[in-house]
Amino acid sequence: MKYLKQFLIILAISMIGEILKYLLPLPVPASIYGMLILFVGLMTGIIRLESVREAGKFFIATMPVMFIPAGVGLMASWGVLKPVLVPVSIITVVCVFTVMGVSGVVTQFLIKIKKNR
After folding, report:
1. What is the structure's pLDDT at 74?
2. Which of 55, 65, 88, 91 has the lowest CB atom count within 10 Å?
3. What is the mean pLDDT of the chain?
4. Each residue of 28-39: pLDDT tens digit?
5. d(Cα 38, Cα 13) in Å, to the nearest integer?
6. Which residues cross the membrane (predicted)?
7. Per-residue pLDDT averaged across 36-64, rounded?
8. Within 13 Å of residue 110, how many CA atoms lie on the same side as its CB?
């Protein structure tokens, strides 16, 4: 019963995200609204971590299975992707290293600020 309650809390937050996506004229996916609501709820204490911890662990454990349809979709559209494979690969590698670099610099900056306090 505990898992059902936790799942329903996450499902309700996801539903609120879907409603916000429908109501607000912003190009933001409903899942982002849901994650922000859950984050704010957890940070403010409105939602206790124990209220969603086990269901969250279950979702994280089953997450790799969710990538299978995307992989199959890539394989099915190989003919369309083949001509642009090199540019997309280069862009992907550049973006990955850019995100890693920026994340490292920001992290070092935040650590330095915390040490100075």
Report:
1. 83
2. 65
3. 93
4. 999 999 999 999
5. 7
6. 7-24, 30-49, 58-78, 84-111
7. 94
8. 6
CA nearest 34: which of 50, 57, 49, 18? 18
What pLDDT shows up at residue 67?
A: 84
Q: Where are the domains of the chain?
A: 1-67, 77-117
pLDDT greater than 90 at residue 41: yes
Both tokens of 90, joined, read 């280069």
Please count the helices (runs of H) and the strands (runs of E) in the chain. Answer: 5, 0
Whether residue 30 contacts residue 20, with contact meaning beta carbons closer than 8 Å, is answered with yes
What separation in angstroms does the CA of 90 have from each of 52, 102, 109?
A: 39, 18, 28
42 CB-near residues (< 8 Å, 6+ apart) = 49, 52
List, in order, residues 6 or more apart from 30 with CB less than 8 Å away. Answer: 14, 17, 18, 20, 21
Band the pLDDT of 70: cuts 50, 70, 90: confident
Yes or no: say if 10 and 55 are a contact pair by the CB < 8 Å rule.
Answer: yes
